[in-house]
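As agreed, record copied across for absentees:
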Amino acid sequence: MSVPKIHRLLEMVKESGGSDLHISSGMTPKIRVHGRLRPVRQEPYTSDEVEDLLLEVVDERRRNILFDRNDLDWAYALPGIGRFRANYFRQQHGMSGVFRLIPEEIKPVDDLGVPKHVERFCEMRNGLILCTGPTGSGKSTTLAALIDYINRKYSRHIVTIEEPIEFVHKNKNCTITQREVGVDSESFARALRSVSRQDPDVILVGELRDLETIGLAITAAEMGYLVFATLHTNSAAKTIDRIIDVFPEDRQAQVRTMLSSSLKGIIAQLLIPKKDGKGRAVVNELLFPTVSLPNIIREGSIHKIVSLIEGGRGMGMQLMDDSILQRFKEGAISAENAYRWASEKKRFAPLLERAKAKK
């Protein structure tokens, strides 16, 4: 049996220390290394070559999904190399595919560079914990570390609902049930509606994509489960706003009340290229539960979240810009990147000017 042609490209991702492989009709294949895309050959692929590469490793069921919907999320395991999260899609010039390497080892929080304070979320018995950030910011990796922490320390039933399954967890002290949307359940919402009958203690929702899934996740947290989920937002305040704004105006007051009692914390995360070009530095905004947080959410006074986090530094809270500034002071990131990723540009402008003056 011949070896699929794409295997060599996937091997190159790991060999180069890369994170993603991009294959697209009419373009040269590229690997993302430390945040930058690098070509791996000069000649672009034709549309036929891309289809041959991508479809060679897909079974008939997934081909039918791709042809029906024009996109496909799935996971591909390559023995000896690793597991990849894959997305196939149609675009202007034909078919494209992106493969993201999922680390085989689930690293503890300490090794990720994420503040150890986040392990406190694992000690909670119920509530909604949100890990947020743009695509490729390491949200899944951080949540995998928290799930593994619970798996090692407690005896609970953990149910994950993902599309696709990324990190594969082995049972340690916990019983872990991993369900893949599109394979084990038709949707996130369907899986969430039935999860209470599976006697879970902890639920991981891969992505809060729509109103129904968000509502069901909040309800599950209210019912007494510890729920971890992800959203594509960059700060605690924007996360709360995003959740509430998803709902129709006539339901928003009710959602604020539900969220005020169920939300127990937010981990916002970004990855910034390191100054030495070797990898990326993780920066985080952290929101922990306080006596005043429920009132802020109920009243819709989300602008007060920043002051709440500033006042909670003693208990481990931090703003994203403070985390960025700390990484800059440590010498991990450049002034240019600190300024680029910061929210409050005025605060970082003097750092940028000093850096330019030194050149």
Q: What stands out?
A: The longest strand covers residues 263-273. The radius of gyration is 21 Å.
